[in-house]
Amino acid sequence: MEGSGRSRPSPRMTRDATCENEPQRHVNAMSKIHRRPKFAAGLIENSDGDLLIVLPTGNPQAERRWQFPRDEVQGRESPENAMRRLAKERLGIEVEITVGQPPVLAQIDGRSVEMRYFHCELSAGEPSSRAYAEVRWIPKAHLREYEFDEVSQPVATWFLSNEAR
Description:
Elements: H1 25-34, E1 38-45, E2 51-56, E3 70-72, H2 79-91, E4 94-100, E5 104-108, E6 111-124, E7 132-138, H3 153-163
């Protein structure tokens, strides 16, 4: 603003390094990510190193595919607590979480969701099919013998590629 004697105020930076005078498009985009439903999924191993897979109920036979146990995170529940709840309520077991993976985006039933996978060890109980049509312990090398849903297939493929090493 030359000649007016006024200088243009310099924009102040906020904590997220955006200018106060600039549109906060990225903040709006981030808030949309946080509104996605969150899911916890378990890569549960027993003492023999076998993985637990489940066959969900409720889908037509032609569409049912195996998956790793998963459930939606409820309210203010943490993904870790959702994993423990899933194990206890849906499978009748207790698990010890050994590693939590960073969230990844996935599609479940046509919805974009934030998925957290947890490597877990069985610590108590024997899984029951109370919430599933079927549950199975399988050796990791046998994952290729099962047809997985689109969310679980990349994880099964990852296990198979790491078993080959």
